Amino acid sequence: MMFSTYILFVTYLITTMGLVALSLIETIDRTFILIISAVVALTFLINLRGGIRLPRAVWNISAVVVFILFLSDYYILSRSLIDASARFLSILIILRLIDLRGTRDYLILFILNFFQLLAAASSTASPLFFLILFLYVVSIIWGMAIFTLKREWDNRGFSGTEMPKDILRGTFFIGTVGLTIVSIVITLSIFFLIPRMGLGFFDKRNLNIIKMSGFSEEIMLGSIGSIKEDRTIVMRVEIEGSNTPPQPLYFRGITLDLYDGYSWKQTIKDRITLVKDKSGLFSVKPSKKIGLLKQNVLLEPIDTNIIFTAFRGIAVEGRFSNIMVDPAGSFYMRAPSFSRFEYTAYSILPEGLINRSYNSIDSATFTTNDTDIILDKPGDYKGVLDKYLQLPEDSDSLKGLLQGLVDKDDHPFRKAKAIEGYLKKNYRYTLNPKYKEGVEPLEDFLFFSKEGYCEQFATAMAILLRTAGIPSRVVTGFLSGEWNRFGSYLIVRQKDAHSWVETFLPGTGWVLFDPTPQAGTVIESQTPAFLLYLDSLRWKWHRYIVNYSLSDQIQLTKKFQFQTYILLNGLRETFRMHTITGFDKYRMRYMILILIILLLTLSLIRIFKLKNIRRNYKTPDFYLMMIDILKKKGFVRKPSETPFEFAKRCGNPAVLDITIIYTRVRFGNRYLTSGILKEVKNRLQVIRVGFK
User: Fold this and answer.
1) Residue among 101, 127, 58 nearest 542 (CA)
2) Residue 526 and residue 451: Cα distance in Å, rounded?
3) What's the per-residue H, E or C state across 390-409?
4) Of all helices (H) and strands (E), which one includes residue 448?
5) In contact, 318 and 342? CB cutoff 8 Å
6) Which of 129, 216, 223, 579 places its Cα 20 to 30 Å from the Cα of 35?
7) Judging by beta carbons within 10 Å of its beta carbon (0-12, 13-18, 19+), is residue 405 exposed, middle or buried?
8) Nearest-angstrom CA–CA distance, 543 and 545
9) Residue 686 in contact with residue 654, Cβ under 8 Å?
10) Which residues pair with 274 in a beta bridge?
11) Looking at the predicted structure, is the pLDDT value of residue 554 above 70?
């Protein structure tokens, strides 16, 4: 392969890595990437045939036009600096590929590809990017080495001529890969050791926001059912201290208090802004992290500002400027997030779930007397509870049903359990319930179809409880999810959206009830193991690379110190044991091992020295070039001939001059100055065109 073709191949390899990285940006249209890829392939064919030489003015005018298009893209179309920049760079790369001339053009192209990869790095959380990054680093180091050789060749007066083919051998590529690995190891070391700092200015704003149903302040009955078959991932949740799938786990979203017969609304909204305390928590009450259920949540971009927490969340920490909490204890951001982000939530578990596979929980820290933090005020709570007794019009038919279910003198808890059990036993769960025209949804569910999904069950129980004089409300959120055994975390999808009931019991507080039959609450794994493994890689990439923080560094340092302590302590114990039970035998083994390592090291040093010595005796390229020229003219050097004998047989003074320079450089340790190179070039030209 000719050197010009070689450097062209490496250049397009680097360009391909940039395009693959660009494809990982979710907001870049796939059609645009396919078109750019096709044009790049076309320019490769053009450059193989010699390329196109465009006037510099044409290139400059084109760059200005593309820049104007970039501004239009950013301010009018995408409103995303990263996306507009990625498209802008791609078009500039094509313009540069069309007119590749000298080393300066290759250098510009390498710089454009670097910024293209940088745009992708700030826009993706895919672990595939790490593989692309590795291949890109290999390619760019390879390309820069070739670029440097080409520039040196041109600077020495050989511009326009091909470099010798044997200058790029397998050892060159192996050395490049080795250098790349060393570079990546050093880079990763710096990444994990340099203190982290957050730069919100560079946060990626993703336009592919997941549209959610069932998490607004007004929800039509039946809205959650429309997403029960949608497998789009909403969040991933790591439960600290749990290596088995915790069941059941209710991720609380929004609470609804008013039902008008067709929809639920949230009317109790008196939200307050929480202030971050000294420990970095947005907490609704003074508390400690110990004894609470800790969840590390990676939330996808969704069109709701709710912060989901397991059961009753009491504290949240993360990169929030501020958050709010409503009277029911639900957390909210100021606005929906337009990018993936991670936060940590701390929750109190219901009494029935204490000591059930949550290894980090101390049951002594829990209490069932957990009333709403904002409403827990003298003279205020009774009035608010009355709002949770609101009933829709024409609810007389519910009283007749209720009389056959509960005794009016029973404790509210027994009434709630009776209603919950009745709904689970006598009604069927289905995502495609039948409807009776002209009948309100709740009446249709209770007296006619007797089938439905979680919304109908939760609505029926809440209204029956209110009919019995027991304050209740409907809660929407997510139920458990799919357990990823490879990463030990829950994958929560849209199909895991769920509704349940919270009931206020005197002396206890708000208690969770779920009247949905088991068919609607049991989560079965439907994802192949291979895809779960890939998702765990994506989780770890985002958790430990994209979202690597100062607290992670502190934990890593502590873990390293602990492991070092264990190792040193183990060596100390081993040494002490060997001393007691006959140290001489083990000391001899250690000495032999050290001796072998020393001999191997010395051998490697010797090999490298010999290799360097052989390199010093390598035939200069200009002499090999002369031999090739003479061979084409019929003068072939015999194996038995010395350089001067061969020069004498050729009978040309130019051949003799180059031979003298050759012997001085190879055997006399002389250096090639610019003057000598110029003389060599002139003599070669004489041999090429004037030799007879």
Assistant:
1) 127
2) 25
3) CCCCCCHHHHHHHHCCCCCC
4) none
5) yes
6) 129
7) middle
8) 6
9) yes
10) 323
11) no
Tokens of 281: 């928590």
Tokens of 168: 């790029």
Locus of tokens 């336009």:
207
State how far the alpha carbon of 187 is from the alpha carbons of 21, 183, 194, 360, 678, in Å: 19, 6, 10, 35, 42
Give yes or no for residue 1 having a pLDDT over 70.
no
CA–CA distance from 370 to each of 277, 473, 508, 557 (Å)? Answer: 21, 16, 7, 38
Query: What is the spatial distance between Cα 222 and Cα 229, in angstroms, rounded to a whole number?
Result: 14
**pLDDT (tens digit, 9 = 90+) per residue, 591-621?**
677 777 778 777 776 665 555 444 444 678 8
Q: Tell me, what DSSP letter sits at residue 258?
A: E
291 pLDDT band (50/70/90 cuts)?
Answer: low
**SS3 assignment, position 259:** strand
Q: What angle do CA 442, 444, 448 make, to 5 degrees?
A: 140
What amino acid is encoded at 434 in this protein? K
Helix (H) or strand (E) holding 416: helix 412-426
SS3 592: helix
pLDDT reading at 153 higher than 80: no
Distances 316 to 155, 286, 313, 475, 539 between C-alpha atoms, Å: 62, 12, 8, 19, 20
Half-sphere exposure of 407 (CA within 13 A, CB side): 4
- DSSP letters along 608-652, please? HHHHHHHHHTPPPHHHHHHHHHHHHTT----TT--HHHHHHHHT-
* 50: Cα separation from own chain's centroid: 41
Would you state the structure tokens that stand for residue 215, as one six-digit string? 């998490």
* Distance (Å) of CA 666 to CA 21, 84, 622, 661, 684: 47, 55, 12, 9, 18
Task: Please calculate the CA angle 55-59-62 and round it to the nearest 5 degrees.
Answer: 135
* Rounded-to-integer distance, Cα 236 and Cα 478, Å: 12
Q: Which residue has the tokens 């969040």?
A: 235
What's the whole-number average pLDDT of the chain? 76
Q: For residues 403 and 62, what is the distance between their CA atoms, to the nearest angstrom?
A: 81
Alpha-carbon span 243 to 487, nearest angstrom: 9
- The CA-based diameter of the chain, rounded to the nearest angstrom, is 126
What's the rounded Cα separation, in Å, for the pair 12 and 632? 34
Nearest to 146 by CA among 325, 2, 21: 2
Dist. CA 247–CA 412, nearest whole Å:
26
Measure CA 425 to chain center: 44
Structure-token pair, residue 443: 């009446």
In the beta sheet, which residues pair with residue 473? 502
Identify which of 489, 499, 488 has the alpha carbon closest to the alpha carbon of residue 456.
Answer: 499
Q: In what order do the strands lie in the sheet with 341-348?
A: 282-283, 312-318, 341-348, 293-299, 233-239, 489-493, 482-484
Instruction: Tell me if the pTM is above 0.85.
Output: no
215 contact partners, CB below 8 Å, separation of at least 6 = 253, 254, 304, 306, 476
- The counts of H helices and E strands in the chain are 19, 21
DSSP H helices, 470-582, are 529-541, 550-580
- 223: number of Cβ within 10 Å: 20
Two structure tokens written together for 477: 């959120």
Cis? peptide before 248, omega within 30° of 0? yes
Q: What is the pLDDT of residues 433-481, one digit of tens each?
A: 887 777 888 888 888 888 888 889 999 999 999 998 899 999 999 988 8
Encoded tokens for 438: 């002209």
Judge contact between 271 and 328, C-beta under 8 A.
no
- Closest by CA to 245, choosing from 529, 487, 514, is 487
As a whole number of angstroms, the distance between CA 209 and CA 487 comes to: 25
